[in-house]
Amino acid sequence: MPDVAVVGGTNILNYEVLENVRVVKAKTPFGKTELEVGEVEGIEVVLLRRHGRRNNIPPHRINHPANFYALKELGVKSAIGMGSVGCLRKDIKLPAIAIPHDYIDFFSNVTTVKNELFHITPEFDEELRKILINEARKVCSKNEYSLLERAVYFQSRGPRLETKAEVAVISRWADCVGMTAGSEATVAKELGIAYAAICTVDNYAHGIRGETVDYREIVKKAGESARVCLEIVFNSVRRLLERG
Questions:
Q1: CATH number of the domain bearing residue 87
Q2: Are 184 and 9 in contact (CB under 8 A)?
Q3: Cα Rg for the chain, rounded, in angstroms?
Q4: H or E element: which one contains 35?
Q5: Between the CA of residue 192 and those of 16, 76, 175, what are the distances in Å?
Q6: Where are the alpha helices (DSSP H) in 9-118?
Q7: Pairing mode of beta strands 102-104, 152-155
Q8: Structure pTM?
Q9: N or C: which terminus of the chain has fewer CB atoms within 10 Å of its end residue's CB?
């Protein structure tokens, strides 16, 4: 089975990412989930569509513990999360790619811990981040994308977007805002899976540069950035597998 998983979100809602796909239906202590195992240019990977294979799971209903427990049961050791985020900094030129180095997640309370006394130190995997950064430098340069090699990711609960007042507050602490990467990083660390995120920065958050945010526009721009993001991700998967 593949050692590496790609976790996709809004970027790939309408993308057929893999070839020779087989669907794995998994039962876990946290519930049921579905994974895809397939190939990209001969490289076998697991694909987890966090919004479901039918794009019917909103952010606040994603079963992160079941998803990552299923990845672990398949033998996955490293996972790269893709996502679309809003930009909290008006000095960043869009479109951009961000590879967060830290995150803030006050509200999700997502965990795989049940009855044992157990604590982890939350973090993105630095070695995996370095691989993503090296590949992103090449791809972003040729596609004229800005690159944030360090960024603090603020996770909001969803499914609604943030108010202008909320954005004004969180922009003091973070560089981008999304709804999933913090929870994924937490459960991955609890389960011993190396995890890092790569984000397409597709819009300015509500009120930044006077912008008003529309979900349909977010999906459209995320889809446009998916090609760039996928190139970085699968180049990184190759580098990761070469290292063994």
A1: 3.40.50.1580
A2: no
A3: 17
A4: strand 31-40
A5: 29, 10, 27
A6: 64-73
A7: parallel
A8: 0.94
A9: C
Give the whole-angstrom CA distance, residue 187 versus residue 7: 13
Domain ranges, residue 120: 4-243
**Number of separate domains in the chain:** 1
DSSP H helical segments within the chain, as ranges? 64-73, 126-143, 164-170, 181-191, 215-243
Best CA proximity match to 180, nearest among 4, 2, 34, 10: 10
User: Residue 48, class by beta-carbon neighbours within 10 Å (0-12 exposed, 13-18 middle, 19+ buried)?
Assistant: buried
- How far apart are alpha carbons 134 and 239 in whole angstroms? 10
- 156: tokens are 């909001």
* Distance, CA of 187 to CA of 176 (rounded, Å): 21
Amino acid (one-letter) located at 175 = D
Nearest to 203 by CA among 193, 191, 212: 212
Q: What digits encode the pLDDT tens for the residues 103-154?
A: 999 988 899 888 888 888 999 999 999 999 999 999 999 999 999 999 999 9
Tokens for 140, please give them. Answer: 């972003």
